[in-house]
Design a protein that fits this description.
- The protein has 12 helices and 14 strands.
- The chain has 396 residues and is α+β, with helices and mostly antiparallel strands.
- Strands 1, 2, 3, 4, 11, 12 and 13 form a 7-stranded antiparallel sheet that branches. It has a 3-stranded antiparallel sheet with strand order 5-8-6. The protein has a two-stranded parallel sheet with strand order 7-14.
């Protein structure tokens, strides 16, 4: 990046125009506020921030390096959204095709009408299954699909919206396999990662695993064995079924089997650099590649839902074709923002109006209110670098 340098205490490159982002990131890394992390920004199709620091694995003290990759939980949903919209743009899939056309078991109680559009906009009515699952069901995938096929919908599909934490990915994968005969991970590699040269996978190759940052809950915020849910849920309730079936600790996602599997809503593994580059290619051209043309970008970021979230009734679900829109993410640059956050503190997205893309990946996980803190500080610094008002500050 033309000799741009990193702030003291971290590595990489930072354009002087975005020094505010670098300074905040260096501050987060100083004094152990983060274990390890990376942040990346693209502006007008070129990388302007690419920074990393800290420790990728506290057990071995392996440092976070330029080629470290990490899992960002629901940040993965943005990759699924970009892939589905790209394939629809290419005419490979039809967002309004019924999944039941190639998945005949998905029938009854209105499920036969479910489309990929409804899946991406969390309107499929299948955010959870009532049958108890275990982690190996997620790894195998087919047991989850079988459970969904047998599941009475939690509401009439298409009539309401509710966040689908895990099932979003399995349903989207079933739609893509029905249309192409190929897995979502293979399609992501061919249509998104390979054209852009991204270190990004859903279904991690074994040879990449030594580069993966180990996820560790922040000891001062959460016990290591806490199930990754935003708050205690009533046993058997829809939120409990959606977020905690199967029950898993945050640290359990380090297992090789869970990284190797395709659990598309949550287990994409990549670098912050790759996530920022992906989103930059959604809003413009990056080294000759543009993922979404202007018409498809507009369609993907037009609200499909803006109504009470039936899974998390304290939130409003404001989403386009798989991308969260400003009302759905606490840390955004303005009304042109779209992207997706992830449990633990990760965030990736872009702004249609400024042409800027951003990604942040930590491996010390914070949950609940705490998970917004560091990414919000970084995005606030990005707004400052761009000369944008703070949309959350009175008068901003």
């Amino acid at each position: 990046m033309r000799g741009d340098v990193a702030p003291a205490g971290v590595e990489g490159h930072c354009d002087p125009a975005f020094a505010a982002v670098g300074e905040v990131f260096a501050g987060l890394m100083a004094g152990g506020r983060e274990l390890g992390a990376a942040v990346a920004v693209y502006a007008d199709g070129r990388p302007v921030v690419d920074l990393w620091g800290g420790v990728a694995d506290s057990r071995s003290q392996r440092p976070w390096t330029a080629d470290t990759v990490a899992m960002g939980f629901s940040v993965a949903k943005g990759a699924v959204a970009a892939l589905c919209c790209r394939l629809a743009q290419e005419g490979v899939v039809d967002l309004d095709e019924h999944l039941s056309r190639t998945w005949p078991e998905l029938r009854g109680d209105g499920k036969e009408a479910v489309t990929l559009r409804w899946v991406l906009s969390h309107r499929a009515g299948l955010p959870a299954v009532r049958r108890d699952l275990d982690p190996m069901d997620l790894v195998a995938g087919q047991p989850v699909l079988d459970a969904l096929a047998a599941e009475p919908p939690w509401w009439e599909p298409g009539t309401a919206a509710g966040y689908h934490p895990f099932t979003y990915g399995f349903l989207a994968a079933a739609a893509l396999r029905g249309a192409t005969g190929r897995s979502l991970g293979a399609l992501l590699d061919e249509h998104v990662a390979a054209p852009l040269g991204l270190d990004l996978w859903i279904g991690l190759p074994d040879e990449v695993r030594p580069r993966v940052a180990r996820l560790e809950p922040a000891e001062d915020d959460e016990p290591v064995d806490r199930t990754d849910v935003p708050e205690p849920f009533e046993p058997g309730s829809l939120p409990e079924r959606a977020f905690a079936n199967p029950p898993m600790s945050a640290a359990s996602w380090n297992a090789a089997a869970l990284l190797r599997a395709e659990i598309p809503a949550v287990n994409a593994v990549g670098s912050a650099r790759a996530w920022a580059r992906l989103y930059a290619a959604c809003v413009g051209e990056v080294d000759g590649v543009r993922l979404l043309d202007p018409a498809w970008l507009a369609a993907a970021t037009t609200p499909e839902t803006c109504e009470p979230d039936l899974v998390q009734d304290h939130n409003l679900l404001h989403v386009g074709l798989g991308f969260r829109l400003p009302a759905g993410e606490p840390a955004v640059t303005g009304p042109g923002w779209f992207g997706h956050g992830g449990s633990g503190g990760a965030l990736a997205g872009a702004d249609r109006d400024t042409g800027v893309a951003f990604a942040y990946l930590p491996n010390r996980l914070r949950f609940g209110v705490a998970e917004d803190g560091h990414r919000a500080q970084l995005v606030a610094a990005l707004r400052d670098a761009l000369g944008l008002p703070d949309p959350y500050r009175p008068g901003g």
